[in-house]
Write a structure and sequence with these properties.
The complex is a heterodimer of chains A (428) and B (226).
Chain A (H helix, E strand, L loop, with lengths): L2 H52 L5 H7 L3 E6 L9 E9 L4 E14 L2 E10 L3 H33 L2 H11 L17 H52 L4 H31 L7 E4 H11 L1 H6 L3 E3 L7 E4 L1 H17 L6 E7 L2 E7 L25 H14 L2 E6 L3 E7 L9
Parallel strand pairs in A: 6-8
Antiparallel strand pairs in A: 1-4, 2-3, 3-4, 5-7, 8-9, 9-11, 10-11
Chain B lengths: L1 E5 L3 H11 L5 E5 L2 H10 L4 E5 L6 H11 L5 E6 L4 H9 L4 E4 L4 H15 L6 E4 L2 E4 L4 E4 L2 E3 L3 H12 L4 E3 H8 L10 H16 L6 E4 L3 E4 L5
Classes of the chains: A alpha+beta (428), B alpha/beta (226).
Chain lengths: 428, 226
C-alpha cells in the first residue's frame, strides 16, 4: 500500500463518521431553529388576533396585513380555556397535489363573550427536502474536502516526499560497488537529511567491505597460482627423474591430484571474482541450443564411455542476450554435471519450454538439501570432485543476468532448470 | 636453437630448466629484469619465455625491449593472470603465446617447440619418432611409409606424445592439451578410449607400441622399455 493511500484511508476513517454524525446533528438543529421560528411567528399572530378582537376593530384587511398564518374559528360550548398547543399537521394541497406539512397552533379565544377554538396554521418547509438539501451539501462538502486533501497529499508526496522516493529508487537498484555515489536534495527536511546521510554511510561501508572481499579473493587466488605452479612442476620433474615404485607412484599421484583440485578451486575462485568484477560485460545474442550442441559434440568421448543416451528432441532454439564466455561456462557446467553424475547407460534429456531450459539426467539421489546445492561451501561427501563450486559459478552467472535456476531431485533423476529472463529487474 | 627463460621464482625457473634440459634446444634461465636485459642485448634467442609478473609487471617492458631491438625470436608469456584482457594485452604487444600459471611443463615444452618450429625453414616441418613420420602442415601421419588416418584428437595426442617423448605425461596434462577450454575435469578415463584407438591404429601397420602406462601417474611415449 502506498503512503498516499494509507493517509487517505486514515482521513476517510475519521471523516466519514464525522460527516454522518455532523449531518444528522445539523439536520436536527436546523429543524429545531426553524420550528422555533415558526412557533414564534404563530405566537405573534395570535397576539395580533387577540389584539384585533379586544379592540373591537372591524377592518379585517388590517388584520390580514399583520398576520401571515391562516386561521379557523370554531365555537365551543362552555367556558373552556385551552392552553396553547403546537403540533404538525399535513393537509392535501390541490395545487401541489401533495400532502403539505403545516405547523399548527390551537388555542381558545373569547369573542363577544363567546368561546371559540382558534386554529392557526402556517406552512412549514418540507422536512424531507430540507434533509436532502442538507445531505446534498454535506456530501458535496465532504467530496470537495476529500478531493482537496488528496490533491494536497499528492502534492505533498510529490514535493515533500520527493527525497524519500529518490532514496527508495537508489536503494532499489543498488548493487555493491557499481559507482553508487548519489546526491539527493533533502529539501532541508531534517529527517530526510539524516536518512540520506545514514544510507550514504551504509552504502559506503558495504562498498568498502565488498571491495575488500573482492580484492582479497582476487589476491589470494592470484598469489596461490605461483606456489601451485612450483609444486606442480616440481612434481612433474620428480616423475621424470626416477623410476618410482608403485607405492611411491601412488603417493605422488595423490599429491598431484590434490594439487589439481587446488588448481581447479583457484580457477573457479578467479572466475567468480572476474564475474564480480564485471569482466564479462560484452553481450550478444546467443542461441543456447547451439552452445549445448557444441558442448555435447566436443564431449562425445565422455558420453560414449558412459554409454549415455541423449535426447535433444524437444530442445528448440533459445536466443538469449548474454556474454558468450559466460554462456559457455554456464552450459558447460550444467552439462558436465549431467554427464559426471550419471549412471552407466544412463540418459540426458535436454528440452526447452518457453524461455526455460531443462536438463534432466539419471543419477543417484544427492544427500544434501537441494537449496544448499548452489552454495559454494557445501559439497556432497561421496563425490570427490567439486560439485559445489561448479554450481556456485552457475548460480553466480544466473544472478548476474537475473535468471532463475531450480533443481529437482527424485530417486534416480536430477532435473535442473534455468529460466532465462524470468525475473525482471526491480524497476524504479 | 636457444631459448631464454625469464622467471623470478627461482624454484619454478629451476623446474623449467631441469625439465627442458635434455631437449634438442639450449635453455638459459634468468631471474631478474636486469639480467634478462643484459642477455637479450648480447644474444639472439629463438624463443623467449617471459613471466610478465616479473618485479611489478616489468615483464611487459622486457617484451617491448625485445621488440625495439627487432629481435626475431618468438615470445611466450607466462603469467598468473588468466583473464582475457591480460591475454589480449600480451598478444597485442607482440607475444606469440600466453600460458597461465600453473601450467604443465609438458605443455610449456609443446608451446616452445611450436614457436621453434615456426622459425625453421619451410618444408622442414616434419616430426619423426622412430618409424613414425608426421607432416605438420598436412597433418599426415606415416608409419613405415604407410599412411594412417587419425582423428583430430588422436593426431593431437600423438604429436603431444612425440613432443614430450621419453617423459612421463600426466593424464591431466594430456586432457588439458586436448581440450584446452574445458574448465572442470573430474574423470580422465575418457582419454583411455583415444589412447586405445591410437595404439590400435599404430600397431595395426606394424608400429611398435611406444605408449607405456606408468602406474598411478600417466603415460610415457618411449622406445625404451620402461
Amino acid at each position: 500500500m502506498k503512503l498516499l493511500q494509507r493517509t487517505l484511508i486514515y482521513y476517510l476513517f475519521i471523516s466519514i463518521p464525522t460527516f454522518i454524525v455532523g449531518s444528522v446533528a445539523f439536520y436536527y438543529f436546523l429543524q429545531y431553529v426553524i420550528v422555533d421560528q415558526v412557533d414564534e411567528s404563530l405566537r405573534q399572530d395570535k397576539y395580533e388576533i387577540i389584539n384585533f378582537v379586544n379592540n373591537n376593530k372591524n377592518d379585517v384587511t388590517e388584520l390580514y396585513k399583520a398576520i401571515s398564518c391562516t386561521y379557523f374559528l370554531k365555537p365551543i360550548d362552555g367556558n373552556i380555556n385551552l392552553i396553547d398547543k403546537y403540533s404538525f399537521v399535513h393537509e392535501y394541497d390541490s395545487i401541489e397535489m401533495d400532502l403539505q406539512p403545516y405547523r399548527e397552533l390551537k388555542t381558545s379565544i373569547l369573542i363577544k363573550e363567546k368561546n371559540y377554538e382558534l386554529t392557526m396554521r402556517e406552512s412549514f418547509v418540507d422536512s424531507d427536502s430540507l434533509m436532502f438539501s442538507i445531505l446534498f451539501f454535506a456530501i458535496l462538502l465532504f467530496g470537495l474536502l476529500t478531493i482537496g486533501i488528496t490533491l494536497i497529499n499528492w502534492r505533498v508526496s510529490k514535493r515533500i516526499w520527493n527525497p524519500f522516493y529518490h532514496v527508495l529508487r537508489v536503494i532499489a537498484v543498488y548493487q555493491p560497488d557499481k559507482n553508487n555515489s548519489f546526491t539527493i536534495d533533502s529539501d532541508n527536511i531534517e529527517e530526510f537529511k539524516i536518512l540520506i546521510q545514514a544510507i550514504q554511510k551504509m552504502i559506503k561501508r558495504i562498498d568498502k567491505d565488498f571491495n575488500q572481499q573482492k580484492k582479497f579473493i582476487d589476491h589470494v587466488a592470484h598469489e596461490l597460482q605461483t606456489p601451485i605452479a612450483i609444486a606442480s612442476t616440481q612434481l612433474e620433474v620428480f616423475m621424470q627423474k626416477v623410476k618410482l615404485s608403485d607405492e611411491t607412484a601412488e603417493m605422488v599421484s595423490n599429491i598431484d591430484n590434490t594439487l589439481l583440485r587446488l588448481k581447479n578451486i583457484n580457477k573457479a575462485l578467479l572466475l567468480l571474482s572476474r564475474i564480480h568484477n564485471d569482466q564479462y560485460l560484452q553481450k550478444k545474442e546467443i542461441n543456447i541450443k547451439e552452445v549445448i550442441q557444441e558442448y555435447l559434440q566436443t564431449h562425445l568421448d565422455q558420453i560414449s564411455i558412459l554409454n549415455l543416451s541423449l535426447d535433444l528432441e524437444k530442445c528448440d532454439d533459445l536466443i538469449i542476450e548474454m556474454n558468450e564466455t559466460l554462456a559457455g561456462i554456464l552450459i558447460g557446467n550444467l552439462l558436465s554435471n549431467a554427464i559426471k553424475h550419471n549412471y552407466q547407460d544412463g540418459n540426458i534429456k535436454v528440452y526447452t519450454k518457453n524461455k526455460e531450459l531443462v536438463i534432466e539426467n539419471t543419477g543417484s539421489k544427492l544427500n544434501i538439501e537441494t537449496d544448499q546445492l548452489f552454495n559454494i561451501y557445501v559439497k556432497e561427501n561421496k563425490t570427490e570432485e567439486s560439485l559445489g563450486i561448479g554450481l556456485s559459478i552457475v548460480k553466480e552467472i544466473c544472478n548476474t543476468y537475473n535468471f532463475k535456476i531450480e533443481y529437482f531431485n527424485t530417486e534416480h533423476v536430477h532435473q535442473l532448470s534455468v529460466a532465462f529472463l524470468i525475473l525482471e529487474k526491480a524497476s524504479s | 636453437m636457444k631459448v631464454l627463460i625469464v622467471e623470478d621464482e627461482a624454484k619454478l625457473l629451476n623446474n623449467i630448466l631441469t625439465y627442458l634440459s635434455n631437449e634438442s634446444f639450449v635453455c638459459e634461465g634468468v631471474a631478474t629484469f636486469s639480467e634478462a636485459k643484459d642477455k637479450i642485448n648480447l644474444n639472439d634467442y629463438d624463443c623467449y619465455v617471459i613471466d610478465i609478473m616479473l618485479d611489478k609487471d616489468n615483464g611487459l617492458q622486457l617484451i617491448e625491449h625485445i621488440k625495439q631491438l627487432e629481435k626475431e625470436g618468438g615470445i611466450i608469456i607466462i603469467s598468473a593472470k588468466d583473464s582475457l584482457d591480460d591475454k589480449l594485452l600480451g598478444l597485442d604487444i607482440g607475444a606469440d603465446d600466453y600460458l597461465t600459471k600453473p601450467f604443465h611443463l609438458s605443455e610449456l615444452n609443446a608451446r616452445i617447440k611450436a614457436i621453434l618450429r615456426r622459425r625453421q625453414n619451410k618444408g622442414f616441418k616434419k616430426m619423426a619418432f622412430e618409424e613414425i613420420v608426421i607432416d605438420l602442415d598436412s597433418h599426415e601421419v606415416n608409419v613405415n611409409n604407410i599412411k594412417i588416418e587419425l582423428t583430430t584428437k588422436e593426431y593431437q595426442l600423438l604429436t603431444y606424445f612425440i613432443i614430450n617423448k621419453n617423459k612421463v605425461l600426466r593424464k591431466q596434462s594430456i586432457v588439458e592439451h586436448l581440450w584446452p577450454d574445458e574448465y572442470d575435469f573430474s574423470s580422465y578415463d575418457f582419454i583411455y578410449t583415444h589412447l586405445t584407438n591410437l595404439r590400435k591404429k599404430l600397431t595395426h601397420v606394424g608400429c611398435k607400441d611406444y605408449i607405456k602406462t606408468i602406474y598411478g601417474l600417466g603415460y610415457k611415449f618411449s622406445a625404451d622399455s620402461v
